[in-house]
Known about the structure:
Residues 86-184 form the HTH araC/xylS-type domain. Its cofactor is Zn(2+). It comes from Paenibacillus puldeungensis. It is a single chain. The chain is α+β, with helices and mostly antiparallel strands. The chain has 3 domains: 9-68, DNA Methylphosphotriester Repair Domain; 82-127, Homeodomain-like (Arc Repressor Mutant, subunit A); 131-189, Homeodomain-like (Arc Repressor Mutant, subunit A). It has helices spanning 9-17, 58-63, 82-94, 102-109, 113-124, 128-146, 151-157, 163-174, 178-189, and strands at residues 28-31, 36-38, 52-55, 67-68. Helix 3 crosses helix 5 (113-124). It is globular and about 45 Å long.
Amino acid sequence: MAASINLSFEEMWEKIIACDRKYDGLFFTAVKTTKIYCRPSCRSRKPKKVNVEFYLDINEVEAAGFRPCKRCQPEVEHSPHIEIVRNTIAFLVNHYKQNVTLSDIAGQVGLSPFYLERLFKQETSETPRAYLEKIRIDKAAHLLNYTDLTNLEICYEAGFQSPSNFYKVFRSLKNCSPSEYRKELQHEVD
Length: 190
C-alpha cells in the first residue's frame, strides 16, 4: 500500500531545494532532460524548475522511463521498517491540520502507540509529535512566504491549536518569530 501525500508542486520544489530528508520516499523528483529521478534530499545539482516532474510512486516514475540517480540511490530501501515510517509520515503530512494523537497515528499504521513511537524515533531520530511540528512549521513558512494571511490565521491554518505554542515551536525551529521570518523573506526579494 503506497502512501500518498497532498503537497503542491511549489511545496515539493521547496523540499528538494532544501534537500529535506523528511520527505524521502514520499515523492520523487524526475528531471525530464536527463531522465533521472532522485530523492527530495539528493545533494546533486538542482535542475531547472521547468524540467522537473514529481511522482508519488517509484513504480510510476520508472514506468515513465526515468532511471535512478547514482548519488542518492532512490530505489534502495535503507531499512526494513521504511514502509511503516513512510506511511506514518504520509499520515502526518495529510493530517497536519487536525489535532492528531499518537493513538490516531498508531491506529492508521496498525501498531501500538508505544511500538510506533520507538520504531519511528529509531528510524528518524525524532518522535512523531516532533516530526508533525516540523511539518506544520514547514507549512507555516510556506504560507508566510506565499500568502498575506496574518500570523494568527497561519497558526490555525498550519494546524496549531494555540498561538503561544505556534510561536514557541516556530522560534525553536526557525530561530526567529513568524513576523521576523516574513520580513526577512521580503528583504531577500527587495
